[in-house]
Amino acid sequence: MNMRRNRFITGYSGLRALAVIGVILYHFDPNSFIGGYLGVPIFFVLSGYLVTDHMLNSYDQTGTYNNRRFYLNRIKRLYPQLIAVLWISATYIFLFQRNLLAKLNQIVFANLLNVFNFWQINNGQSYFERFANNESPFTNLWTMSIEGQFYIVWPLVIFLLVKLVKKKKRIFFFLIAVSLLSAIEMAILYLTKADINRIYYGTDTRFFSLGLGAALAVIWPVEELNPEVPKQDRILLDMIGLVSFILLLVMYFAKAMNPQQAFAYCGGMLLFSLIVCIFTGVIAHPGSHWNQIMTNKLFDWIGSRSYGIYLYQFPIMIFFESKINNLGDHPILYRVIELVLILVISEVTYCLIERPMSKITWKKTKQYFGHVFDMQAKNYVKKIQAVLAAFVLIFGSVAIAISPHVKAEDFNKSQLAQRINRNAKKQKSYNAKLIEKLKKQKKQKENDSKIIKEAAEKAKSNPVNQSYVKYGISQLDLELAQKVQVTAIGDSVMAGSSNDLKQLMPKALIDAAVSRQLNVAFGLLDNYKRQGVLADNVLIGLGTNGPFSIDDLNRIMQEVGPKRKVFWINVHVPTRDWQRPVNDLLKQGAKRYHNFIIIDWYSYSKDHPKWFYDDHTHPNITGSKYYSTFITKTIIKHSKF
């Protein structure tokens, strides 16, 4: 019996285009397009819907499903481009960026086996931190592994549901129940302070988007949707489509969808997936105008190449930005260059790899590769193609082969990560003891002139930290720093230098962490204030990982209060386009608040590239000395003792 083929829905190319545009915009500017990462659930919902609809349609018409053909089509559709991006990236790493060689073999094979998301969880690969310990060009490939796992198990799942559960109503409620369990698990893990990477990358915690798409296919099969609908129903469909489309776009920009805040994990992503399901269903209905609206040449082009665009965007960004030291000075220009590179490479690989390989038969595979590597061919394009293919295959394979012999600690990026980790362990135990001490300590107001006089005498008779004098700090300031009480909240820049800061200011309570954004500081300040340990001098080192608004700054100042002084370290992050906006905003803060002092690390350090690691942002061992002494000097100059 011949099976009727599913109707091709051109509007889904437009939906894929929206998804990949959102992801790219998020990677370009995660603060302006704070919900752009939600493009991934769009891909998941679409996959769940289309795959399940195709399978159920087959069972309805023939009573069976051709699993062999399904797996064959998935392999031809997904693996050629995946292999290409892995080997092309490996070649580039071998030739130009060998600091990324460590564990490359594990990354490649984890991707080929569709378990890369588990590898990222086990290896602490953060999606939100592109400094210090996470410059991987492969970070975005976690989604491919979840898709791959879905394609592997889903034919069996549908077979069991059709044979055992049978009734579509029950299948629908089963899929809804499992999807809700997945979303509930995500929320519970977040609320119980589980590792954010475990939650973000987990197949179980991300299944709900796929499951909801699959559930939609059960009750909204493409072939059973009637194009002849009453005018009122058509208007209703179009209105539902409009509302869901607007909500989809709003959530791309909504601050509540910040992927490092609670709402995203406690119902936010689930809500978004439900909205995508509704919009997907409206596009699928032939009685709605939304399939036509989402069908145009631009969306068709982007949507048809969305797989390649998604695969290549992150490697291109990482490789390009690693070679550009002044991205912050020309943000628009460099983003345009990156976008052009992404689109050009995606188009080339689509024409040479993705499209021909998706249509190839096993019998023609040998013929295809024969043409690619045919050095005798008269066609110069084929000769160039053959040379490039051989080049990538050889050097990519060499990079993968030698990577097990490369130790991560051989490279300074990993040295920074190790420093941060070591400092974090010391910081945790030191802070716990210091907090207990501060709770018991009674505040005694001493005469400033008396403190300075005593410090001057000690500086002569028993000087401390003399090795720091050569970094531009006086012995008197070093002595005064022993007494100053500071509460410091920062990101990975401060975390990398926390030991030096603690050495200079032993009474400083330093709370610094990788990936930290400004919004985290609100809760930390409130917590320290409630414990009664928030010092009169508050040091803030945030802004490296993204810009913030004047409202955010105002909230920090309200939380701290007018009686405390706020010392805010401005940012030296020339490879990010938010360097200038952050520093300009801090200048506004200094004008607005009498107790707001800028520690101008940017001006002090911008002409000293040797103070930084290769990311041009994190101070190296020498830079850390200058960073900590400069901060200490400024605090001593303005602080309350």
TrEMBL record:
Q: Which residues cross the membrane?
A: 9-28, 34-52, 78-96, 148-165, 172-192, 207-223, 235-256, 262-286, 298-320, 332-353, 386-406
Instruction: Extract one GO cellular component term from the record.
Output: plasma membrane
- Compartment list: Cell membrane
A GO molecular function annotation here is: acyltransferase activity, transferring groups other than amino-acyl groups
Q: What Gene3D superfamilies does this protein map onto?
A: SGNH hydrolase
State the membrane topology: Multi-pass membrane protein
Q: Its GO biological process terms?
A: lipopolysaccharide biosynthetic process
Q: What name is this protein filed under? A: Acyltransferase family protein
Native source species: Lactobacillus helveticus
